Amino acid sequence: MNIIEIKGLKKDYPLGKTTVNAVRGVDLNIEEGEFISIIGPSGSGKTTLLNVIGCIDTATEGSVKVGGAEITIMNDRALTDLRLHKIGFIFQTFNLIPVLDVIENVEFPLLLMKKHTKSEIRKRALKLIEEVGLKEHATHRPAELSGGQRQRVAIARALVTNPDIVLADEPTANLDSVTGAQILELMREMNKIENTTFIFSTHDEHVLKYANRVVKIKDGFIMEG
Amino acid sequence: MLLNLSLRNLFRQKRRNLMLGIAIGLGVTILIMASSFSRGIEDIMFNKIVTYVAGHVSVNMNEGLGKRVPVFRDKERLFSIIKKNVEQDAEIDESFGVFTRAIGNGKADNMILVAIDTSKRYTEERKKEVRESFNVIGGSLLDIGTSAVANAVILSRDRAESLNVKKNDVISIRFRNVFGQNQSERLTVVGVLQNDNIFMQGVMFCELKNVKAMMGYRPYECANIHIKIKDPKENAVRVADKIHSALTPGPAFIAGKLSYLSSESEVVVIPFRGDDDSIRLIGSSFELLDGKMDDVLLRDGVMISSNIADKLGVKPSSEVLISYNAKFEKERGSFKVQIKGVFKSDVYKGDNTIYMHEALFYPKFYDRIPDLDKERARVSLPEVLLSLPESTNKDRSNTFLPEDLNKKRASALGLTDQAYFKSALGNEWELLDRTRNTDEMRKKYAAQARKKIRATTMDVNSMYESASDVLKLESVLNIITLWAVLILFFIILIGVVNTLRMTIKERTREIGTIRAIGMQKRDVWGIFMIETSLLSLFASFAGTLFAFVLMWLLTLIRFNVTDNPLGILLVSNHLYFLPTFGSVLLNITLILVITVITAYFPARRAANLSSAEALRHYE
Ligand SMILES: Nc1ncnc2c1ncn2[C@@H]1O[C@H](COP(=O)(O)OP(=O)(O)OP(=O)(O)O)[C@@H](O)[C@H]1O
Ligand SMILES: [Mg+2]
Fold first, then answer.
1. For the structural domain made of B98-216, what CATH number should be given?
2. Residue of A56, A84, A157 lying closest to B612 (CB–CB)
3. pLDDT digit string, tens, across residues B7-40
4. What's the pLDDT score for residue B337?
5. Where in chain B is the domain with CATH 2.40.40?
6. What is the pLDDT of residues B388-413, one digit of tens each?
7. How far is A14 from chain B, CA to nearest CA, in Å?
8. ipTM of the complex
């Protein structure tokens, strides 16, 4: 089953008097449980594509279905809700909330959902922190962690709500290659344990070996995949 | 969770938030101090100075042209009218000032002897208030109530110096009594007033009952009335208006016996006014059968109705004796008058009536007032005192009804055209118009002096007329407070907007992140609003605390202001703040509202940030 169906997606950015065509007509289907990598040079439209899929940016043209629902016609409220329940995010710069410690950062999306009790939330967060191997650092603030550790927290935070899709925009770009590899290992592992669809972008050929499918993008077009 | 996040964020940019917090806190401090100070002054003015100087509402009497005696000859009646028109808890006091020439140890000066009633029971609270308002070293103003010495008096330091007297010395004073005669009396100094302000300079205080005795008041007579009411700012004018309209006088007359030679007759004596308009009206309304109208209209003019004149054989230049029952004295009132004319009597003017110039009438009338209510029931009064509508006396000109209207009413009653002179007759007293401010009041007094009114004038004032100079100070203070609020508003506006703008810029990527994770716009907005509100709440509490500490410290300072009119703003030489729970709450709320309003738009901008844009943001 296709968890994501993209047809004729175009995204333009107005830039002064001209328009930047960041994505120029993309058709892409992604199946549930895939571990898929989007690769392309800088400025090729990877971030743009992921943002549209992640419902944090809107398409200029085309149709995008996430979990069967057409997102191009949803309002901000519904999109926000969809992000909260269906999508997890991992960022290149980790983007943890600095005033919260590790466990609070992981709990954060669950608190937003307002569906679980405090103890349920704590239990779930602890489980994920354990899975990403940060049990000892649960009460540390992000500033007290290394880059790799921070990205692990981000992975735990992305997965804590049990999303259908995790989007990771260049998750290893700010890490050294060893740590980056560990992070990808971890993501891969999580993909297997939770059967969550992972889409991550990269411009680093070395990380492609982790993906079970590679989509190549250039100048806003899909070249291959 | 939002609260938790806001709280933690608050401690993130410590310096910036501390600065803003201090600004807001100081704002609260200034606001609370300003309003407490202004309330303190208001309290001093309304509840201390004004109360003792003039009352919130005062009823002032003036009997006898030129004598200027504050006397009303029926205390009970006046008090009952006033009581009916004020709230239960209003305090009604007699009080008045007498101009005196005082002689101390070899020196003399002019002073006002102020009579105040200390005989009623004072609560501890009131005693304390008196002590605070009137600073008498080693004693209290209430010491004038002592009977250990004759006529105890407390005088201002200023006059104690100019008379060269101190405690236990004797001052002799000369003044004019109720009867208009000069009199001297000896007073014993029991204290010196340390307050040096414009109100207290030429003043000495003496017990009301002593002053009344010196002045020759009889037990049933009273002096000026000061009324202290609740919420004077709200109510003073209304209460004054109400009392004023309740004090509308009825027509004056004396009903009694007329004796001439060996015969007697019932008679009603009616005063006519002595002003030019009234004299003209009387002259044209009466037809004399004997005597000259010119003589009748003089200050000793008296005319008698032809009916009794014929019956008793009274002629112009006959001397008749009039006697009547007095309201308070056992002894009947009696006086002799010389008749100057005989007028043609009718039902309107009365068959058994004497009309008399007010200059002749009122001294007799006030000296031994009759019980008019009783007399109204006992004798049949001439139509003129009954038929036409009683003058409302709102305005002196109103008492002279327009001629045509008077004629119309008279002819409707089947009376002759000449019968419209009611407005020329005198009333029990003369009620002066209400005025709205000191200026109007002064004009009124000047106009009244020109009219040469012989009846006792009665004047109802609220503090807005009698103490408007003091009250002006209050509006000045209010304006200052308003400015403080405005300036604070802008400081807070700029502070909050700037701080939020910086904070939002710094946290742009964070906002993008939490929006991506799934926080709704409204909650993002909420975080910033809560953050700012918390900051201003903490700051307000700190500011309030600081304000109270400052006020406490300031009240410790002793000011030695002499001959400075601003001295009235001090209580026993100390600054006086009156913070009330309500006003503190109001000020804090005001600041909170201002911060919330100013934070609203920046917070909304933060919430509306596009998540994708925000995530792309690098500092
Ligand atoms: N907000 C924007 N306004 C204008 N142009 C934009 C905006 N966002 C992206 N672009 C342009 O769109 C194109 C695609 O950008 P995108 O960020 O998707 O590239 P990318 O593949 O993620 O690049 P990188 O590997 O450097 O992150 C680029 O040419 C970029 O300059
Ligand atoms: Mg990118």
1. 2.40.40
2. A56
3. 888 888 788 889 899 988 988 898 888 888 888 8
4. 94
5. 98-216
6. 444 433 333 333 344 555 556 556 65
7. 13
8. 0.95
Q: Rounded CA gap, B327 and B333, in Å? A: 10
Q: Which residues of A touch B531 (CB under 8 A)?
A: none
Other CB atoms within 10 Å distance of the CB of residue B463:
26
Q: Which residue has the tokens 């891969």?
A: A188
Whether residue A60 has its Cβ less than 6 Å from ligand 1: no
Portion 73-102 of A in contact with B at CB < 8 A = 76-77, 80-81, 83-85, 89, 91, 93, 95, 97-100
Contacts of A77 (CB under 8 A, 6+ apart): B520, B521
Residues in chain A closer than 8 A to B509 (CB atoms): 93, 95
Q: Is A171 in the pocket of ligand 1 (CB under 6 A)?
A: no
Provide the residue type at A51 as one letter: N
Residues across chain A = 225
Distance CA A110, CA A131 (A): 17
Which tokens hold the place of B309? 């004149």
Ligand 2 centroid to Cα of residue A43, in Å, is 7
N residues, chain B: 619
User: Can you tell me whether residue B117 is helix, strand or coil?
Assistant: coil
| pLDDT tens for each residue of B556-577 | 888 766 555 566 667 767 788 8
Measured between CB atoms, which of B509, B517, B616 is closest to A109? Answer: B517
A47 lines ligand 1 (CB under 6 A): yes
Q: What is the pLDDT of residues A8-52, one digit of tens each?
A: 999 999 988 899 999 999 999 999 999 999 999 999 999 999 999
Give the number of beta-carbon pairs within 8 Å between A and B.
66
Model pLDDT, residue B292? 93
Write out the two tokens for B524. 């993002």
| Distance separating alpha carbons of residues B571 and A223, to the nearest angstrom | 90
Nearest to B518 among A47, A80, A95 (CB): A80
> What per-residue confidence (pLDDT) applies to B196?
60
C-alpha gyration radius of chain A:
17
Q: How far apart are CA B151 and CA B148, in angstroms?
A: 9
Give the distance (Å) from ligand 2 centre to CA of residue B417. Answer: 110
Count Cβ neighbours within 10 Å for each residue of B470-479 and write b for 16 or more, e otherwise. bbebeeebee
- Asked if A98 and B510 come within 8 Å (Cβ–Cβ), the reply is yes
Q: Please give the DSSP secondary-structure letter assigned to residue B61.
A: E
Q: What number of H helices and E strands is found in chain B?
A: 22, 18
Other residues' Cβ atoms within 10 Å of the Cβ of residue A32: 14
Cβ-based interface (< 8 Å): residues of B facing A: 1, 5, 8-9, 12, 509-510, 512-521, 523, 610-612, 615-616
Using the predicted structure, report yes or no on whether residue B440 has a pLDDT greater than 50: yes
Selecting from A57, A100, A109 the residue whose C-beta is nearest the C-beta of B612 gives: A57
Is pTM beyond 0.90? Reply is no
Chain B residues lying within 8 Å of A99, measured CB to CB: 5, 8-9, 12
Distance CA B100, CA B114 (A): 10
